[in-house]
Amino acid sequence: MGEKMTVAELQKTANEIRKGIIKATHAAKSGHPGGSLSSADMFAYLYFEEMNIDPENPKMEDRDRFVLSKGHVAPGLYSTLAERGFFPKEDLLTLRHIDSYLQGHPDMKKIPGVDMSSGSLGQGISAAVGMALAAKLKGKDYRTYTLLGDGEIQEGQVWEAAMSAGYRKLDNLVVIVDNNGLQIDGKIDDVCSPYPIDAKFEAFNFNVINIDGHNFDEIADALKKAKECKGKPTAIIMKTVKGKGVSFMENQVGWHGSAPNDEQCEQALNELEKVGC
């Protein structure tokens, strides 16, 4: 992508992604803002700094792949893709509308830049493992990234995929867990605790890195270490704040799958506008 972005530029980009999330879910009157907002910093780094992708050629054969395993966080992915130039930003306002290509979950057949349709929790990581394995079998250098929710890893299929990735030494795979601590039914450790997350991935032969998912220096360092690690897939466990960037949404489980009304949308955008100054 040429010259590296500064932390300030990345923060501004993540802030624009957050604005898109709020506008899209408000226009849809539904959607999942909480986990989209907590993932925005990682989205910004992956799509504007880390991944080899081309909005002009979304199906480029040697592109890096990304799978949104927690597919309900589509507003975050869509806002990122729009910000990166895969499709017009104004299309975000059609989220979940009849006849819109921006459905409630990502559709690889209709949305430029989406590498895998997802939504059924636990399945995305399996597809990502398949992509990473395909690259190995074909002798290709592209890398595969997948983002999971911390509630999502309660799904058994996640660990079947992890077992396969570790066994096959897929060092071209990066599994990112958004550890914001909340899922639709409450705190993850009250529903069905997946802790300790890092030890579990280590047991499946992963290189594990714990980071603050809102610190761009830590994100950059973790992804650099993932590239340098040979013979093991990498799991990045990022501690985040659900609803990050919008004061009344932060750490509130009710915003897992609720859309802001007119007044809340205005307040959220005002707060994000001030951050961007």
UniProtKB/TrEMBL annotation:
Reported cofactor(s): thiamine diphosphate
Pfam families reported for this sequence: Transketolase_N (PF00456)
GO molecular function, one term: metal ion binding
InterPro entries documented for this protein: THDP-binding, Transketolase_CS, Transketolase_N
Enzyme Commission designation: 2.2.1.1
Boundaries of every Transketolase N-terminal domain copy: 11-268
Top-level taxon of origin: Bacteria
Root EC class: transferase
Swiss-Prot/TrEMBL keywords: Metal-binding, Thiamine pyrophosphate, Transferase
UniProt record similarity statement: Belongs to the transketolase family.
Name of the protein described by the UniProt record: Transketolase, N-terminal section
Species the sequence originates in: Anaerostipes rhamnosivorans
